[in-house]
Amino acid sequence: xxxxxxxxxxxxxxxxxxxxxxxxxxxxxxxxxxxxxxxxxxxxxxxxxxxxxxxxxxxxxxxxxxxxxxxxxxxxxxxxxxxxxxxxxxxxxxxxxxxxxxxxxxxxxxxxxxxxxxxxxxxxxxxxxxxxxxxxxxxxxxxxxxxxxxxxxxxxxxxxxxxxxxxxxxxxxxxxxxxxxxxxxxxxxxxxxxxxxxxxxx
Length: 202
Fold this sequence. Notes:
Elements: E1 10-13, H1 24-36, E2 39-42, E3 47-51, E4 54-57, E5 60-63, H2 78-81, E6 92-93, E7 113-114, E8 116-117, E9 121-122, H3 127-141, E10 155-159, E11 165-170, E12 176-182, H4 183-201
C-alpha cells in the first residue's frame, strides 16, 4: 500500500488532523502528497464501529471494502503480571538506569518501559527510543557503561509513497522545529534509517 493503484479509492479517516503533530510546513507537505496520491482525507471523524460495510464515525458512515486500522502501540501485560510496578498505560516504571523501580534487578527496555529522561520527558514508543535503550543495557551488562541512560530526539521521518517522504527536525524533547526535508532526499533518509535498524539487529 505504498501507493494505491489508480482504480482504488482511498480514504484516510482520523479523529484528529492528518499530520497534526508536525510543524506547519511538515503537515502542509503531508497533505499535498496525500492529495497528489488521490487520498481523500477526512479529519475530526472519530471511528465508533467497524463492520462488513465499512466504518461508522462521528460524522457518519464511510463505506469500505477493506479497512486498515492504524492504531497506537499497547504494551504486553507481562510486566504487570510479573509484579513490576507499571504506569497507567501498562509500561513498567524504570529508573534512570532502565531498572524496574520495584525490582532493581530487572532491566526493562523498548515499548515495555516507561522511561523519563531529564530535560526530554517521557519517551514515546518506537525503534528510535527502543534501540538506544537496548544498547545502553547491553553496555551496562558488559561492563562498558555505569552512568544513567541518556537520550535526545533529533528528527521524525515519514515515508510518503515510493517517491516522497518527510524529515521533520525536532528539539531534544520531540517538539517540532520549523525546518523540514521533503521529496526524494527525505525518502532516502528514511530508507537509510530503516536499513540501519535492520543491520544493527543482525
